[in-house]
Amino acid sequence: MTNVGAGPTVLGRGTSRQTERGENNMWIYEKKLQYPVKIKNSNPKLAQLIISQLGGPDGELAASMRYLHQRYSCPYDKITGMLTDIGTEELAHLEIIAAIIHQLTRNLSEEQIESSPFATYFVDHTTGAYPVAASGVPFDMKYVGIKGDILTDLNEDLAADAAIAKAQRRRLKNVRELTIQSALLRFAIPTQILPCRNSGERIAKLNKNTGKERCLVQAKIAGKGVGKCCNCARQLQRTHF
Amino acid sequence: MGGCNQESGAERSLVRKLQMIDFAIVDTVLYLNAYPHSRSALSHYKKLTAERAKLCEALARASAPITHRDELSDERWSWTDGPWPWDVQAN
Question: How many of the other CB atoms lie within 10 Å of CB of A114?
C-alpha cells in the first residue's frame, strides 16, 4: 500500500525459482500431481467410496480450508507458516483424489453404472468430480472448525488429521480387496500423520508458554488492532495467555 | 514434441523425479518450520531445490513446462498441451 506509484510492482517478475523460496505470496499451479495416479480398470463402486475423501467431513477440501482459514487469526508467525504449508499441500491431495475419481470412472459401460452405488451420483454429476461425502451430502464448511483461537484450532487440526488417517486406513482395506494402487494410499497416510505431529508439537509448545510469551501475544493482538481479539475472552485467557 | 496426446517416456520420468524431489521438499519444509536452526536440514533443502531447478528447466526444454512461467519457446505456447496431470497417460 505504501508503494503505490513508486515503480513496477512485484507481480509478473516472479519466476518459479522465487516461488520455491516462498518469495511470492500467492499460489501458482504446477502441472503435475503430487503423487502419480495410474488406474488400469474403472470401478464406479470404489469411486463412490473414495469420493468422500474429496468432499466428505474428513476430506481434503475440508482439510485445506481448515488450515488455510485458521491462519488469519493466528498470532504466531511460525504457526501461520505451518498452516500455510500444510493447507497448500492439502490442495495437492485434493487434486490426487479428483484424479483417482476421474480415472476410476473412465469408459464406463451402462451396466457398470446401473449396477453400482455410483448410479445415484451419476444422475446429477455424470463423471464430473463433485466434492461430496459418500453419503451424498455435498461438501459443507460445517465440517471445519475455525475459532480464532490458535490452541483451539490446532486441537481441531489434530483431531481432523487423525480422523483422515483412520478413514484412509479403512479405505486402504477396500482398495486391497479391489486390487488397485494401494501404494497410493500408503503414500497418503503418512502425509496426514506428519501434520498431526506438527500440530501436536505446536500445542505442546503453546502449553509451555511463559509470561514473556504472553506479552508478545498481547502486543501482537494490539498491533493488529483487533482489540478484543475474539468474542470469547475467557477462552482467550486460557489459551493465548 | 508439444501438442501430442501421449506424454513421452522421457518427460514422464522427469516428472516422476520431480514428484519425488518435491515430496522430499514438502517434508523438509515442515521439518524446517519446526527446527529453523537445523543446519543439516537447511543444506538438505538447498540440495533438493537446486536439483529441482535443473529438472524444471529440463521439462521446459522438453516443451512440458511445470508452470506457465517456465515457458521457454518464442514460437509456440505449450502450457495448455495435454495430457493433464490427472490423465492416465501422464502417469
Answer: 12
pLDDT (tens digit per residue) in A13-59: 334 444 444 445 589 999 999 999 999 899 999 999 999 999 999 89
Tell me the shortest Cα–Cα distance from A188 to chain B, in angstroms.
Answer: 11
- C-alpha grid cell for residue A224? 493488529
Q: Do A16 and B88 touch (CB under 8 A)?
A: no
Q: Are A91 and B26 in contact (CB under 8 A)?
A: no
Contact assignment for B23 to A34 by CB distance below 8 Å? yes
Residue of B nearest to A192 (CA): B27
CA-CA distance, B91 to B84, in Å (whole number)?
A: 10
Q: What are phi and psi of A138, to 5 degrees?
A: -65, 160
Query: Does ipTM top 0.85?
Result: no
A180-189 contacts at long range (C-beta below 8 A, 24 or more positions apart): A180/A39, A180/A40, A180/A41, A180/A43, A180/A46, A181/A37, A181/A38, A181/A39, A184/A35, A184/A37, A184/A96, A184/A100, A187/A35, A188/A35, A188/A93, A188/A96, A189/A165
Cis peptide, bond prior to residue B83, ω within 30 of zero: yes
**Partners of A132 in the β-ladder:** A138
Q: What is the mean pLDDT of each run of 10 residues along chain B (91 residues)?
A: 60 94 92 91 97 96 94 93 91 90
Residues A139 and A59: beta-carbon distance below 8 Å? yes
Give the percent of chain A with pLDDT over 90: 42
* Maximal C-alpha separation, chain B: 47
Tell me the three cell numbers of residue A228.
Answer: 478484543
Task: Name every chain B residue with its beta carbon within 8 A of the beta carbon of A17.
Answer: 53
A33 close to A99: Cβ distance less than 8 angstroms: yes
Lookup: cell for B83:
495430457
Q: Does A35 contact B23 at a Cβ distance shorter than 8 Å?
A: yes
